Recover the amino acids of this structure.
C-alpha cells in the first residue's frame, strides 16, 4: 500500500491522479478531513483517507501502518518534513518526497543508519529537476572520473505553486551550504552569478542552494558541486548584491513576518502543462579541461514530478530487492527504463 501525505495540495493531487492512472493501491492523507473527502470522491478508486497534521506528532503514526511506501508532499519540508521522515525510517517504511530544500535533505543523514537497520530507504528530492539531474550525473560520472559537477536550471515563464514559493523562501533562509574542495561548508546563497551557453543562447544565472549540493557528493567521490538558476541579465547583476542580504534578513525575527505574509497570499493557479524547462549538466575531470555536458529539456515540471513519483512507486511495489538507507533517485531507478519513461513523456536528452 502507498500512503500519499499532503495529497490535497497542488502536487499531491497530481500524484494521486498518476497513482490512479497506474492502478497502484494507495490511500491519501492530509490535515483537512473536508479536502480529503472531496479529493477521494473525485478519484475513481475512492481511496481511503487518514487525517494527519505534520505539526501534531501524535496524529502521524497511522500514516505508517500497513504502508510500504510513504510519498510526502506536505511542505515546506524544512518545517514539516523531518519528523515524518524520521518516523518512516523508524517504522521501516520506504520514504519519498518532492522537496528541493537543501538543508532539509542534508539533515536526513541523521536517519541513514536507522533506515539501513530497518531495511527501508529515504529518498528525498525525487521531484522532476533533481531526479533528472541525478540520473544524468550518475551516468556521466560512471563514464568518466570527473570531480567537478555543475547543474543549471533554465525555467523561463514557469508559474510556481504557493508550496514551491514557501519552500524556496525556507531554502534561502536555511540552506547556507556549499560543496567545494571535497567537503561541505557554509555558503550564503545567491552570492555569485555567471553565464552559460544554452542552445537558445547565452543565459545569465545565479548560484542557488539545491539538493544536488548534498546528494551528488553523498553518492559520488567528487570535489565540487555548483547549482545555478538562470535569471534576467539585470538580476544577474543585482541578485548577488541583494539576495545574500535578503537571505540574512529572512533569518532575522522580521523574516517571519515576510514568510507569514507570503503564506497568506495564494498565487494564481499554476498553468503547468506548457511550462518549458531546460537542465544543463556539466562534469569535468580536472580544472582547465573541457566540460562534458548533457542537456535535458521538456515541459510541465509539476506533471512530470507526479509521473516520476508514480514511476518510483511502481518500482517499489513491483520489487522485493530494494536499496536501504538515504539514497538518491538514480539508486532506485533503472537508467534505461527511466530514460524511456521520460522520453514517452516528451523529455529530450542531448549528450
Ligand atoms: N522541487 C520541485 O520541483 C517540486 C515540485 C513539486 C512540489 N515540490 C514541493 O512539494 C511541496 C508541495 O508543493 P505543492 O505545489 O503541492 O504546494 P501546495 O499546493 O501549497 O501544497 C502543500 C501541501 O502541504 C500540506 N500541508 C501544509 N501544512 C501541513 C501540515 N501541518 N500537516 C499536513 N499537511 C500540511 C497542504 O495541506 P492542505 O491542502 O490542507 O493545505 C498541502 O497538501 C512544496 O514544498 C514544494 O516545494 C517541489
Amino acid at each position: 500500500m502507498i500512503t500519499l501525505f499532503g495529497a490535497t495540495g497542488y502536487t499531491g493531487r497530481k500524484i494521486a491522479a498518476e497513482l490512479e492512472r497506474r492502478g497502484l493501491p494507495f490511500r491519501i492523507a492530509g490535515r483537512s478531513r473536508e479536502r480529503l473527502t472531496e479529493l477521494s470522491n473525485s478519484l475513481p478508486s475512492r481511496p481511503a483517507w487518514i487525517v494527519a497534521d505534520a505539526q501534531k506528532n501524535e496524529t502521524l503514526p497511522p500514516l505508517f501502518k500497513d504502508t510500504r511506501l510513504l510519498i510526502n508532499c506536505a511542505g515546506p519540508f524544512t518545517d514539516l518534513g523531518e519528523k515524518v521522515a524520521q518516523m518512516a525510517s523508524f517504522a521501516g517504511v520506504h520514504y519519498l518526497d518532492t522537496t528541493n530544500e537543501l538543508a532539509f535533505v542534508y539533515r536526513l543523514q541523521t536517519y541513514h543508519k536507522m533506515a539501513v537497520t530497518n531495511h527501508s530507504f529515504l529518498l528525498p528530492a525525487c521531484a522532476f529537476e533533481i531526479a533528472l539531474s541525478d540520473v544524468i550525473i550518475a551516468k556521466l560520472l560512471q563514464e568518466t572520473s570527473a570531480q567537478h559537477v555543475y547543474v543549471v536550471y533554465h525555467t523561463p515563464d514557469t508559474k510556481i505553486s504557493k508550496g514551491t514559493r514557501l519552500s524556496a523562501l525556507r531554502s534561502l533562509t536555511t540552506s547556507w551550504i556549499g560543496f567545494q574542495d571535497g567537503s561541505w561548508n557554509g555558503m550564503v546563497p545567491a552570492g555569485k552569478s555567471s553565464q552559460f551557453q544554452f542552445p537558445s543562447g547565452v543565459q545569465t544565472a545565479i548560484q542557488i542552494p539545491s539538493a544536488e549540493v548534498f546528494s551528488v557528493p553523498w553518492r559520488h567521490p567528487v570535489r565540487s558541486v555548483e547549482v545555478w538558476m538562470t535569471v534576467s541579465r539585470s538580476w544577474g547583476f543585482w541578485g548577488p548584491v541583494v539576495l545574500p542580504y535578503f537571505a540574512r534578513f529572512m533569518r532575522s525575527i522580521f523574516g517571519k513576518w515576510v514568510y507569514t505574509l507570503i503564506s497568506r497570499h495564494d498565487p494564481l493557479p499554476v498553468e503547468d502543462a506548457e511550462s518549458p524547462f531546460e537542465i544543463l549538466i556539466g562534469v569535468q575531470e580536472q580544472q582547465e579541461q573541457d566540460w562534458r555536458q548533457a542537456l535535458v529539456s521538456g515541459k510541465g515540471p509539476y506533471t512530470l514530478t507526479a509521473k516520476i513519483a508514480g514511476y518510483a512507486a511502481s518500482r517499489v511495489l513491483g520489487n522485493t530487492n530494494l536499496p536501504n538507507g538515504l539514497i538518491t533517485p538514480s539508486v532506485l531507478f533503472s537508467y534505461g527504463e527511466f530514460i524511456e519513461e521520460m522520453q514517452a513523456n516528451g523529455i529530450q536528452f542531448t549528450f
Notes: The chain has two domains: 2-127+302-334, 128-299. Residues 2-127+302-334 form a domain with the Rossmann fold fold (CATH 3.40.50.720). The longest helix spans residues 233-251. The chain is about 40% helix and 25% strand.
